[in-house]
């Protein structure tokens, strides 16, 4: 699975270049050592343009997080699936790839680093709450459609979505912060078993 490209097809060139520079500086220096000066060093235009758009680093980083999460949401598989089981499997493949490309790992590491700031920053918490609600409701919609199609049992879609989403987030966080993929792959396999044994209507009837 390729990494989502958060800088593709963005409407404002200067804004996108600022976001790209912020991403590059964050990857290079980390959140704690990030400064406007270091972002400016990655920016191909005059650093004064950054200050024309943002009052300082805090405002810029909140805007960057919003930019990143909006594109993360846009990359979630949503269309072209007639079978809810196939749609849910594609979402698992997308969210927890077995062999992620390095760009994907770096992207998710950046998201994880910013998520950590939500523990004590209300602006970050609000952004992640919105995105988590979107992702969880998207999974619930897939489950509802599967129930209507008769391929999923008559489960509680919201509770099922909360379980799947929380497991995915935990595995993504572990992948971004540890050196072992074994627990992540085990979590993915267990999710697939959950779908096959607990969620699938065909399996529940056997």
UniProtKB/TrEMBL annotation:
Signal peptide: none annotated. Residues 12-72 form the HTH tetR-type domain. Keywords: DNA-binding, Repressor, Transcription, Transcription regulation. GO terms for molecular function: DNA binding. The keyword Iron-sulfur does not apply. Residues 35-54 bind DNA. It comes from the Archaea. This is TetR family transcriptional regulator.
